[in-house]
Amino acid sequence: MAPYNFTAAERAVFRSLGSPEKIQRFLDGLAYNKEPFGPTCRSPRRVLREATAHCMEGALLGAAALRMLGHPPLLLDLEAVRDDDHVLAIFRVRGHWGAVAKSNYSGLRYREPVYRTLRELVMSYFEHYYNLRKEKTLRHYSRPVNLAPFDALGWMTSEEDVWAIPEHLCTIPHTPVLPPRVTRLGRVDERLYAAGLVGLVR
Prior knowledge:
The protein is α+β, with helices and mostly antiparallel strands. Helix content is 30%, strand content 19%.
């Protein structure tokens, strides 16, 4: 395991996260960061120290933890309408894509590495991606973004917010998920809606 300037205690945490499933369980165990004192984009070091994360911060920690397992640190941005965007840390096993993620909605988290293409992976989130008005809101997804070029900014251990990464995700092209001329979608049914809100932090 390359140190990447992590402390011995931080490296011990990463050693305990020996699989994507363990990374996801760790992310699930973190308190959800509702940003009570204003917007944050904290590095994995700060997330480990403060034991709280929102979607973007969880994706950064997930990417760092996957990197420690030998995967490239890849993020994928999901873009929504009338809703927040969502960021996944993605990985590939035997040619198939999976993801880890921190979310306030139960259906927007882990995906097993069984998806042959990125579009298959993204579409697995479609029915689970909705707002509190029960609208299905996922509309676009980005290409994978390798965070290695951001190493110069110390994104894994910075004491400053690493806004350069989400700002970059907002500037790159995104691919639509809806077929052409599809303008109307059904509402989320009550059972799926209720299931997605299990554990919601308001």
